[in-house]
Specification:
This protein is mainly alpha-helical. It is built from ten helices and no strands. It has one domain: Up-down Bundle (Methane Monooxygenase Hydroxylase, Chain G, domain 1), CATH 1.20.58. The mean pLDDT is 88.
Amino acid sequence: MRTFLPIFGRSPFGPLQAHMEKVTETFRELRPFFDAFLTGREDESREIRKRILKLEHAADLVKNEIRDNLPKSLFMPVDRRDVLQLLHVQDRLSDLAEDIVVVASFLDDLKLPPDLHEPFLGVLDLSLGVAERASKLIGQLDELLEASFSGAEARDVLTEIHEIGAGEFEVDKAAYTLAKELYRRERDIGTTPMMLWQRIVELIGRIANDAEGVSDQLRLMLVR
């Protein structure tokens, strides 16, 4: 595996961006997974689940290499602790993708009523959209560095951070509405499947929450 040590001599952001790229690959597989899972394409969903597990592991390897090679001091306008915290919140996104597909595999016959497919996928798409925006922010870190974390670039990032927070709030509302409907339909769905779907919806909501955590950590770095 390539080492990030030379990169850290110039900037801590290249490795963080490399890690976020792996994380993004992982959570992007959730939509195709559920497209297959909800329509009973078991072989396809099983293969995508395996791919998500491999991608999450690859993200972990990048995370571990960054931790192992991060110098004790960085001659950069960011604190080492901020770099590690940003790495941590990024990593939670790939962990959640893994957790979601694992929970979905607990029951061989886990089904969702067809009329709830669209609301469920709507919540998923909203949450993944927030995560994509956070990923794009991390891709702009080099531009922020060149601008010394100030000026128009920083103002644009702060505006986007605000929008990510608003998006996370929309995910919360949609997830709450869906959770209520799942609970109301417990008799039709079954108690155990209903609880599993509730858990899946909760984890999907946490993707948006942790994506907001990425943007919040970036905000702290800008303020400092």
